[in-house]
Amino acid sequence: MKITKSNLFITLFFSCALSTFAQETSGSPWPKSTNINQPWTRWWWMGSAVDKPNLKKSLTDFYKAGIGGVEITPIYGVKGEENNFIDYLSPKWMEMLDYTIHIADSLHMQVDMVLGTGWPYGGSHVTLPHAASKLIVEKYPVKKDETFNKNITLTNSKEKVPADLLYVVAYASDGTYINLTDQLKKNKVNAKDKGIEGNHVALPDTSEPNKLNWKANKKDYTIYAVFSGKTGQEVKRAAPGGKGYTLDHYSEEALNAYVVPFNTAFKGREGKIRAIFNDSFEVYGTDFTPNFFEEFKALRGYDLKKELPLLLNETDNEIGNRIRSDYRQTIGDLLLNKFDLSWTKWAHSKNFKTKLQAHGSPGNLIDLYASADIPECETFGSMPFDIPGFRREKEDIREGDADPVMLKFSSSAAHISGKNLVSSETFTWLREHFKTALSQCKPEVEDLMLNGVNHVFLHGSTYSPERAAWPGWQFYASVNFNANNAIWEDAPALFSYISNCQSLLQQGKPDNEILLYWPIFDTWDKYQKGNLFFQFKIHSLSEWLYDTSFYDTTKSLIKKGYGVDFISDNFIADAKVVNGKIMLPGGSFKSLIIPSCKKMPLATLQKLIELKKAGGSIIFEGLPESVPGFNDYKKQEEKLQNLLATNKELIQPAPDVFKALESAQLYPETLVDTGLKYTRRAIDGEKIYYLVNHTPKTIETFIPLQIGNKEVVIFDPLTRDYGNAVVTKNATTTLVKIKIAPGQSYFLKTENTASQKKWNYYEASADAIALKGNWKITFDKGGPQLPASATVSHLESWTKLSPEAEAFSGSATYTLEFDKPNAKADQWSLNLGDVRESAKVWLNDEFIGTAWSVPYQLNINKLKSGKNKLKIQVTNLSANRIRDKELKGEEWKIFYEINMVDKDYKKFDATKWEPMPSGLLGPVTITPLKQQN
Questions:
Q1: Cross-sheet strand order for the sheet of 576-578
Q2: Alpha carbon 274 to chain centroid distance?
Q3: Does residue 855 contact residue 443 with C-beta atoms inside 8 Å?
Q4: Apex 153 CA angle, 147 and 156, nearest 5
Q5: Is 796 helix (H, G, I), strand (E, B) or coil?
Q6: Which pTM does this prediction carry?
Q7: Distance (Å, whole) CA 579 – CA 447
Q8: pLDDT tens, residue by residue, 664-713
Q9: Are 145 and 217 in contact (CB under 8 A)?
């Protein structure tokens, strides 16, 4: 059989699959793999220019690589492909969706999709009344005894979309208020007026429907004209058939109108889609909905029209801030109750789940994330790690936003509401286009999983048909995980690692014992430059998260070794105490910490005291000073102070929160003192620990687990190896012998009786031995053309071999014969040194494994006496090939809308790049290992 690229890939894939199958059917303690364990990918359909043969090929590629599902997001198209564009939700589009689901089912994959195109929700069927709205207020000063006689219209020339006048209100200099809205009604035509036969009906002047003729008696007044305006924002990156206004996210009426075409489209397709996705809240400047004032009065208990001067006052003052806090809270309540919860209810009526990115929303993130079946966070940019050999070149990165505290909002919402899956938009702008290595993905995804994520979505994969010339169709903010990217060659190893991790992270339940209250009203109550619309964005953490007691307490708890989840006022309201534990829909918690805060709703404080009296561990770091909001706040504040005074002994602030936790018999996982990061789950009375070493040093010691008298199984998610650890036990803790190198991770699972083979501990019995000799280099696959073979005695970047090699992206095989060293060894460790960027390894024609992450190290069992043959197939990045393509003037950026920008959102230009080092840089060494007793 001729060995083609696809044949070689399929052979390797099935050999790996058979190996995995053998492990799972021979009593392996690893959970059985499912498509939910595997990573999924956001799948962009450019112009929805898809066809059945290419859909099948793409899905098959995903399946073979180890991707468990796709999330379809139609976006803008490719120039020259206009005849292949398919309008969103058209019969042809639905036929392609049906075919996608059919092929996915046959491959045991699943399909999610966005309820629209691009983002945010919106489209051609969103009419102006249901489009995203904003509050517009025009002011007219009127001197005493002066007459105001004019037609009230919007004078701001920047407003491109018509606005509706809702109210006209006059405010006197002494604070009195007159609602003049009714005086405009006489200008309105009543179509029901028939008149009496023989009499004329007086018709108003329709050319001036909002004319007001009013005299300011005895006082100076300011007239406020309140308009319901439109933001005019349209769907970003919309696909054909999907362009139009963004939706009003505070109106259930707007949502119900929005889903009408989907009701038709999904008829007979109920349950065929796994979940409906809603991206991060990027509906800009939308601080209003047409019936906002009525909703506000119902929720906050007072008429906002009477307080407009205070609401809109451009000074930082207590009363104005209280009213603005009420306004912001109302926006959040409407988003939660009129949109997100209603959206999930609608999806459930179709037998779909929902998946929501709540960040960026102007509401309580915990409640909003929890409104969906699968809360989803995201990472954006690159985070630093201290792992030796981990590359993070400044010119190729943008600083990341993956703060662990921010990530925990989504997972906390899932944990307290009882949702097992927490997803993540993963690797967005991890590096510059074509420059992301698999090794750079690993610690980033580990940090996500350490903070509660267990359902990774790659960001992402662009549908690219075979007719598209390399590099194929590209999305502008993506790593682009598909067969056109060189890293796809060894991407199955990354996907396998994620799958192995998630197979354990989806077991049982999260085991964070502490709840931490998020005092959102301290943020809502701030002046915030007078803005009524305040978003809790991941890109602006300094505006609402950093430098808060909540953030500082979270960081200190994590650093100490405690597992913590966040809780909102709404979830506190539903909490109860059973046998000393705080019970929530998602499970039980042993303590609730209240960080220092200025504002707390009276109902929240009352409930906290109730929980404390019922035997719950409620620890106050500080006590609230007042209640939030404006309505009757003096009386509310008095009640709060009385409540604090009456229960002074019960809620005495703890001077040391850690001593308070120990008094409640809550102890941290002191394994963090070694530098290890961890997360913990509970299953059937046992614990599962995920341990990651992001430090620069190997950690070799006995680490303590906060569970007594247990045996422990070690799982290596990189190799799927496992075995019972050496342990030392006492009544309260179990000490586990561990050796974990920088960049490495393990799972630990406790059990009562040792059930597996012993874990093998090795140590070097001699120094590393450098492998020297003549390396034969053969270029196997890639482009733009295969360079000539070469033989080298010194390993360096293959870009130095020739101009063709400098331009090459793909795979090359390095072969070396070496004599077995004269050293005793129970096993050998192979260290490839510096690899650019991933490598498959064979020893004496036996496949050993794939080295794709730091440290580039594999264990090999035995060496033959005499000659041994080492074969290493190295794959580099696509960067050098795209650089060469642009230097030659070959155009590939042929996309509508944002036609390829770089990481800084400037024009993409690879001609400025230097060639990226590629291949096996070494030094390659082997180290004899001896087994420890």
A1: 576-578, 581-584, 587-589
A2: 18
A3: no
A4: 120
A5: coil
A6: 0.95
A7: 34
A8: 999 999 999 999 999 999 999 999 999 999 999 999 999 999 999 999 99
A9: yes
